[in-house]
Amino acid sequence: MKLNKTIIRLLTSLTVVTALSFNAGIAQAANYHGAIAISPSSKALGWSYDYRSRRAAETAALAECYKHASDCRIATWFRNACGAVSIGENGGWGANWGRSIHQAKVKSKRLCHQNDSYCQVERWVCTTR
After folding, report:
1. Global pTM?
2. 116 and 88 in contact (C-beta within 8 Å)?
């Protein structure tokens, strides 16, 4: 009888640990990061998506941008979402993120219009969520 109680406790503990590990894996797997980098002087762009951390996504976007310019900076970053950069006719720009492509584009154009006119979405990218 005592052996059965010990086995039941062991199996219960194992089930709880397995469930917690499984749920933690699901939560981690759900987070994908992306970023868009821009060169303010040349408007060169670099972007990334589906990285496991914000830092990794920003590093990748900057590395791509640096292939074309030396003054790159992060324009926007996002997690389980989309990002967009809009550039105006005089070089002004705006960048933002949204839960959908449409939302990211609208928000980036709105920011661009604060600095410039005739803003157009130059680049957008989304994580696969």
Report:
1. 0.77
2. yes
